[in-house]
Amino acid sequence: MGLFDFLQPNKNEKPSTWGLSLLKPKALDQILVLGCDKGKNVLTLLETYQNANVTGVDGVVKQPEEKGRYRIIQENFADMSFATKSFDIACAFDSIYFWTDIDKCFREIYRVLKKGGSFIICNETDGKDLTGRSYQMMIQNMKAYQMEEIERQLKKAGFKNIQTYHHETKPWITLIGEKQ
Fold first, then answer.
1. What is the pTM (predicted TM-score) of this model?
2. What pLDDT band is residue 155 in, cutting at 50, 70 and 90?
3. Please, are residues 44 and 23 in contact by the beta-carbon 8 Å criterion?
4. What does the pLDDT look like over 11-53, one tens digit per residue?
5. In a domain, 157, yes or no
6. Is the residue at 78 inside a domain?
7. What are phi and psi of 53, to 5 degrees?
8. Own/partner pairs for 2-8, CB < 8 Å, 24+ apart?
9. Rounded-to-integer distance, Cα 61 and Cα 41, Å
10. How many angstroms separate the CA atoms of 71 and 125, rounded?
């Protein structure tokens, strides 16, 4: 069971699936997943974008893995080893809660995105709901950001045309910023 699974009464809909549905369709060659955990979202992206290569990174990957069109490796989001302009899209699904220097991480993500690339953030809590706030108090080093805070940080890192979405019935939020 994931950290916020209790917020999902409809097990068929997940914040990541909902957030990805908000992306405008476009051809993607290289996808970066930040905070890939066990790779669940990596698999979803491989199925959705059948011609894309997906790189999943996490700070606590026990064993790197590489097969076919995907690889899962350990990286520090604030100082990644990828070349500048390597990815068409970067995705963070329920992971920014634990990033220690969000400013530096967002700037680094901006660096590794290609011109016209997008950064999508999907969070299961909007930082205002009672459950998300109580988990923030219980879990050391967790920060449940509010949408306005994330948007401000994205702009500060250089992202433009930032789109913000709040789920109609759940505290889920998605933000999509573009690198121009």
1. 0.90
2. very high
3. no
4. 446 888 899 999 887 889 999 999 987 678 888 899 889 999 9
5. yes
6. yes
7. -100, 140
8. 2/94, 3/94, 3/124, 3/135, 3/139, 4/94, 4/124, 4/125, 4/131, 4/132, 4/135, 6/131, 7/124, 7/125, 7/131, 7/170, 7/171, 8/124, 8/170
9. 15
10. 28
Sheet holding 87-93, edge to edge: 65-67, 70-74, 53-58, 30-34, 87-93, 113-123, 173-178, 160-166
What's the total number of domains in the chain? 1
Please provide residue 137's backbone torsions phi and psi, each rounded to the nearest 5 degrees. Answer: -75, -30
How much is the pLDDT for 60? 82
Q: Which residue's entry shows tokens 């500048």?
A: 84
Residue with tokens 């990174």: 57
Q: How long is the chain?
A: 180
Question: Other CB atoms closer than 10 Å to residue 78's CB: what's the count?
Answer: 17
Tokens for 74, please give them.
């350990």
pLDDT for residue 25: 77
Local structure of 168: helix, strand or coil: coil
SS3 label, residue 180: coil
Asked whether residue 9 is assigned to any structural domain, the reply reads no
CATH number at residue 161: 3.40.50.150
Q: How confident is the model at residue 63 (pLDDT cuts 50, 70, 90)?
A: confident
